[in-house]
Amino acid sequence: MAQPAFHVFLSHGLESGPGSTKIQALKTVAETFSGVYAEAVDHRSTKDPAERLAQMRHAMAAVGAKPEQTILAGSSMGGWVCARTSEQTPVRGCFMLAPALALPDYPESNPVIGARHARIIHGWNDDVVPVMPVLELARKQQIEALVLPDGHRLENSVQRVAEEFRRFLFLCVENPNPS
């Protein structure tokens, strides 16, 4: 029996791009899995969260991604895009790095993550998105969270983030029918 195709969509942060170090590290990890199609969505044409959300939905529709075989991964605003996408269209996985969640002046920043598997990685020293409100959101929704001694960009933790993403993808892709 052929392995089902899984789609991994990567969403970068506000001031970043699809070629950023973290997004490319995650894409490289995803491409090591058999039967996985990975795409780094390019959001650089807009800073508007609603437009970026529409771009993610369009990217998923363009390749016919089935939500139950889709994994979303994003950083900062890209994490928000993934969280909101999963709220609107429940997916298999949602992997968020320093996600722009639980911010008082951010649109719809307390989404209910709609993913079979969800994970948040954040930095204790994040000066852009405070860690404690994100951890509270994770606690309320029972989302696994890892906090590292790093800042918002997690620039000193790229290798660790990639290792954690590999574990996350293994859970999502190699174990298709978890209890």
From TrEMBL:
It holds the Pfam family UPF0227. The keyword Iron-sulfur does not apply. The keyword Isomerase does not apply. Keywords: Hydrolase. GO terms for molecular function: hydrolase activity. InterPro entries: AB_hydrolase_fold, UPF0227/Esterase_YqiA. Gene3D superfamilies: alpha/beta hydrolase. This is Alpha/beta hydrolase. It comes from Marinobacter nauticus (Marinobacter hydrocarbonoclasticus).
